[in-house]
Every structure is written in C-alpha cells, then in structure tokens.
Design a protein that fits this description.
The chain is an alpha/beta fold. Helix content is about 40%, strand content about 15%. It has 14 helices and 12 strands.
Length: about 400
C-alpha cells in the first residue's frame, strides 16, 4: 500500500468493501432439528418457541412481560395504542424515522425536542420545557445503544403525570447503572432486525411491568381479537413466527459476547482516533454500557480539515462503508415537516450534518477496525489536497 489515500490514487485500504453491518447468524445445522420440529407440528406461529423466547427475554431484562411482535415499529404502535396516548408526545428528532412514524400512525402529534450534543440522547430539561397540558407522554431513545438519562426522564414524567416510553431499538446489550435497559419507564420497545446485537430476522420486543399494557399488546398483535372474535380495538397482525423466535433463542446465547466485542471495537476507534483533531465521540455516562449498535463520530471540518461528507467520499474510495445517521433529522423529512414548528433544533441539526457512523459488527476482527483508523489518519494527513481536488 502506498502512503497516498485511495482518493488521490493510492491503493485502497481494503481489497473488498467493508460493510457497515454483518449480522451474526446461526449455521443451519444449529437449528435444523428445531426447524423440522416446528414444521412437523404445523404450529408455525404462536407456539412453544415464542413462549420460550419471551420467557428468556423477560428474565434477562428483569421485567414481568416481554411480548414478542413483528417489528419494533409495530411494538411502538401497539404500545402507544395500549396506553391510550392522545394529543402531543415529546420526542427527539435525532432518531430513526420509525420512532416518529409510529406516533403519526397512532394519530399522535410529535413535539420535537433537542438532544444533548454529547450523549446524542433526549435532553431531560429541554423535554420538560416542551410539556403542555396537551402532552400525554415522552418517548426517549437509547441512541446507538447509549442509555438515555433514564432517572432524570422518570422524574420529569412523574412530575407531570405523563407516560415515559423508550424506543430501545438499539438497546439489547446496553446497561444502565448495572442493569439491562428494559425495565425502566412504562415500556421499552426493542428491535431484533439484522443490524442489531440480538437478531430474530425481523421482530421486536415490548418489555413492561404493566400487566394491562402487556395484555393489550398481546391482544393487539392479534388484530385486537381477544379470542372471542369480537375485536376489543383495531389492532394489527404483529405476530412473530416460530422460526424467528427460534433464531432469537439462538442469538440470545451470543448477546453478551456481541456487546463485549462491539465495546472492544469502540475502544480501538476511541484510542486511535482521539489523537486526530476535530473528531468527537458519543459520551457514555459512568456506570452505563453502550451496546454500540452503531459507532458514530462527529467531524468538525475547521479542525479536521474536511467536512463529514468529503470524509465519507474518501472512505468510500478506501472500500469502507459509512452512514450519515441521522441526516436529515426527522423534523426536516418531508413526511414530518407539518409537525415541525420551524424553530431551530440546534444540537440535532448540528449532529445530523456532522456525524458519520463507521463499520461495526458483533464479530469484527480488530485488524479491520485498526485498518479503518489507519485509513482515516491517512485521509486526515492529506486533507488539504483531498479537499482541493474534490471540488468543494
């Protein structure tokens, strides 16, 4: 490899593209006997594997109920409906769009609140300032797997007598003050899609200690049919198939190792990139563990020597995949502009335009993350030339 970055004619850091995500999935031989059992039974949904999976997750999260659903999005929709939310819901805009789409589908009005620029999570003081008599809930996010300010948000919700729900899509593998995220607040809704640490293929979990909410979600995932064929309310088809639950049982056995590996990768990124000017990192509070579903950094172009977008182009030339989470933020997306007041959401907008997520997965070899760091160091070294030749 020459010392030149690939964007200036050097050899790419990697011969093949380094993907953002590589899901860790079981070998068929690990599942074949159980799959045959499922197929022979004729019970391909709502069977013993679903019950076992829900029980394993409830024990892990230390909650009374872990209700498996077809996706995190459907879980959020059913949670909002099950709590009979109405009117306004305070929510961050620096999040994946599904946090908000589930609110809108439920007939609710998202009130966008800013995040702490260091944690990238909902700022409790800003959220509290957005609460009015029309507010029924706060929805917070464990962004990239970094636990939200749970205790502070619980205090806010309790003071105002409103619900607190966590979009915990990135939450499996995250720890808050020594406990897995999941049992705090009124409900936490997890994703089990292939980009996560715990995978079922597609699926979600609603974790709650609220008996009535759990009953309504179980009813709601069956179209709102409580068994009498007289719909209790308008529900969804949000069931998790047995094979997905089986994959989840297998994946759960690898969850802790996935979290440890990702934290190791994050440490490599931190140690190597902290020496470069203009790179910022997500702050994790003492006593917490980030799952690092994503590893995102910020780029200050004045200090680093180039913008986030030019860095992304240069990394693409090195065969390194990246993402710009979350650009645009939800309040500036076409479908949600009607809910946006127009006042700047400064931290969110700055993060959206300066953040870049680097590859990370649950069995990443340290040589890969080290190679990515070396590529970024080389790009920074030649930043002036890269910017001049990029046309920006």
């Amino acid at each position: 490899m020459t010392s030149l970055p690939a964007s200036l004619g050097g050899r790419p850091s990697f011969a093949k593209k380094i993907q953002m995500v590589k899901p860790v999935l079981p070998d068929f031989s690990e599942l074949s006997e159980d799959i045959n059992r499922i197929l022979r039974s004729g019970m391909v949904t709502k069977g013993e594997y679903l019950e076992r999976f829900e029980s394993i997750i409830a024990d892990h999260l230390k909650v009374k109920h872990a209700v498996a659903v077809s996706s995190c999005t459907s879980g959020l929709m059913l949670t909002y409906r099950g709590l009979n939310l109405s009117g306004d819901v305070v929510v961050p805009s620096f999040t994946f769009m599904a946090t908000i789409s589930a609110l809108v589908w439920s007939g609710l009005n998202p009130i966008f609140a800013d995040v702490d620029p260091n944690t990238t999570n909902l700022d409790p003081e800003i959220a509290e300032a957005m609460i009015t008599p029309n507010t029924s809930a706060i929805v917070a996010v464990h962004n990239f797997g970094n636990p939200a300010s749970i205790d502070a948000l619980i205090d806010v919700a309790n003071r105002h007598g409103i619900y607190l729900i966590f979009d915990a899509a990135h939450g499996f593998g995250s720890v808050y003050q020594g406990e897995p995220v999941g049992g705090q607040g009124d409900a936490q809704v997890f994703s089990l899609s292939p980009t996560k640490l715990l995978i079922t293929g597609e699926g979600g979990i609603v974790a709650t200690n609220n008996d009535d909410l759990a009953r309504k979600i179980r009813c709601g995932r069956e179209y709102g049919n409580n068994g009498s064929y007289d719909s209790e309310f308008a529900g969804l088809n949000a069931r998790m198939p047995e094979i997905n639950a089986l994959i989840g049982i297998n994946s759960f056995q690898k969850l802790e190792n996935a979290a440890i590996t990702r934290n190791g990768t994050a440490n490599i990124y931190h140690q190597a990139l902290a020496n470069l000017p203009g790179i910022g990192f997500q702050k994790v509070a003492p006593g917490n563990r980030n799952s690092y579903k994503d590893f995102s950094i910020t780029i200050d172009p004045d200090l680093f020597g180039m913008s986030r977008d030019i860095l992304a182009q240069a990394l693409h030339a090195e065969n390194i995949d990246t993402r710009k989470y979350y650009d645009p933020p939800v309040h500036l997306q076409s479908a949600y502009l009607q809910y946006y007041s127009g006042s700047p959401i400064q931290n969110t907008e700055w993060l959206a335009s300066h953040s870049i997520s680097l590859p990370i997965w649950s069995n990443m070899n340290p040589d890969i993350s080290s190679g990515i760091c070396e590529a970024i160091e080389r790009i920074h070294k030649y930043s002036e030339t890269i910017v001049r030749t990029s046309g920006h």
